[in-house]
Amino acid sequence: MDLTSTFVAVAACATALALAYVHRLAAGPTVFDRLLGLSGFGTSTTTILVLVGSVYGRLDMFVDIALGYALLNFVGVVAGARYFERLDGR
Amino acid sequence: MGVLITALLVVGLLFSAIASFGVLRLPDFYTRLHALSKAETLGVLFTLAGVAVSQGLSPTTVKVLLVALFFFLTNPIASHAIARAALRTGQRPLGETLDHR
């Protein structure tokens, strides 16, 4: 099994595992469960971006996209947490 | 080299799987956050390490390791922010094991 197909397989598995976070994002009982799902989904997506970059041989481009996505995800989650903290969890 | 890369990727995937199943199956918000914050961080670190090893010595490797370092620093901060917001707005852990005010 060559390296490219290993990357494809790992990316596919990571995508399947990210569905758990989509479920938590859609069905989480509290708003913090949804925030948790968003955080986990963004983290998985960054990993998948780096793996896809490896598959296409353009990792130098994809890693920048992944870094930007990770930054936006982090800022979004922290801002959301502070917002819902002030809003009293409603 | 290929064996090392595959091993790193599989270990990373294993930790990500633990995190995903924890988020799906654990009973309350704090236990789910616990599963996510530790296992997912380690899974990302292992997977990115596998990709970095596959690139050899190049500027791209440094960037991949920077992404890994970014996650190592920011994932606990994000989890802490979520947990603090939940605790301050009155979410209670199952079993009331903490003496929280």
Keywords:
heterodimer, A: 90 residues, mainly alpha, B: 101 residues, 3 helices, 0% strand
DSSP E strands of chain A, number: 0
Number of strands of chain B: 0
Sheet with most strands of chain B: none
Rg of chain A over CA atoms, rounded to whole Å, is 15 Å
Count of DSSP H/I helices of chain A? 3
Structural class of chain B: mainly alpha
Question: What's this model, at a glance?
Answer:
Chain A is an all-alpha fold and 90 residues long. Chain A is 88% helix and 0% strand. With 101 residues, chain B is an all-alpha fold.
Which helices and strands, and how do they pair?
The complex is a heterodimer of chains A (90) and B (101).
Chain A: H1 3-27, H2 31-56, H3 59-86
Helix pairs in contact in A: 1-2, 2-3
Chain B: H1 2-25, H2 29-54, H3 59-88
Please characterize this protein's 3D structure.
The complex is a heterodimer of chains A (90) and B (101). Chain A has one domain. Chain A is 88% helix and 0% strand. Chain A contains 3 helices and no strands. In chain A, helix 1 runs antiparallel to helix 2 (31-56) and helix 2 (31-56) runs antiparallel to helix 3. Chain A is elongated, with a radius of gyration of 15 Å. Chain B is mainly α. Chain B has one domain (2-93). Chain B is 79% helix and 0% strand. Chain B has helices at residues 2-25, 29-54, 59-88. Chain B starts with a helix and ends in a 13-residue tail after the last helix. At the A-B interface, helix 1, helix 2 and helix 3 of A face helix 1, helix 2 and helix 3 of B.
